[in-house]
Amino acid sequence: MSGFDSKETLRSNLILLGLVCLLAVWGVAIASWGYPAIIVPAVFLSFSSLIALVFVTRG
Q1: pTM for the whole thing?
Q2: Which of 5, 23, 29, 44 is most enclosed, with most CB atoms within 10 A?
Q3: Domain region containing 15
Q4: What is the number of structural domains in the chain?
């Protein structure tokens, strides 16, 4: 036996499916809108990372 129950396997499969779908949608956005579809998520992630760092450093 591998030690994994069906709930853990189902959860990991759903997470993997969600990530694959997210990447597929992002690929379609890049094909549709081009370069801005690559830049906008990076800009948003830099802003959210800055906010997260501020909250972490405040304790």
Answers
A1: 0.63
A2: 29
A3: 6-58
A4: 1
